[in-house]
User: What shape does this take?
Amino acid sequence: MPFEYLREIAQAELPLTVDQEANIDKLRVLRAADLVSVMLPSATSETQKFARVLAITPKGRQMLSEDLERLG
Assistant: This one.
């Protein structure tokens, strides 16, 4: 799930480089939901096969906070 990946990102040191295609796809979903700020490879790029997570947006941090409240 992309939201579970957001939790992983929250535990990592940013900026974070991601090179697994499945995780890059999750980042596309998270960016579309305005939960992360990320530099993604172009769909037509042959050379750049990685993404760079720059930050979790305020909206993403709010979702993480609400998730902790539900669990806690």
